[in-house]
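Apologies for my clumsy wording, but can you show me some protein sequence, whichever is easiest, together with the matching structure tokens, please?
=====
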Amino acid sequence: MIWYALLVAAVAGERVAELVVARRNERWSRDRRAVVAGEGHYPAMVALHVGLLVGCPLEVWLADRPFLPALGWPMLAVLVGAQALRWWCVGTLGPRWNTRVIVVPGLPLVRRGPYRLLRHPNYVAVVAEGLALPLVHTAWVTAAAFTVLDAAVLTVRVRCENRALAAAGAPVPA
């Protein structure tokens, strides 16, 4: 269980690193007259992600969930892949990446890196992580709850992001 708590703590540390990058990128965007959208859903998204990080070790501890190697190791590989995809997205978008919906008017859509393959690759990483992190240690209730709630949040988020991009003059692919 200790190693799993350390894994969840490492993911939490990654989230802190994201917030540092996002804050720096927000300043860059605001200096270029960025438009911020979707502030209403942002607190729910943050609460959901905090809930994931708290729920994983809590469920393992309270429900005495075992580590099942046949499930845990593949889920750890998915988790590592999700982190790699997320940071590929961050690197590809550069100062335009953010945890908030912030769009600099007039900038074209990014169509390189993972964005040449998928419309919203960062959200693929979020979905994969939300399933994999709990299932590394069979926290299936947390995985299911996060997945259902995340589907609702991402539905709002993707619509908000697409509207913000369109309003800023960046054509959104169909």
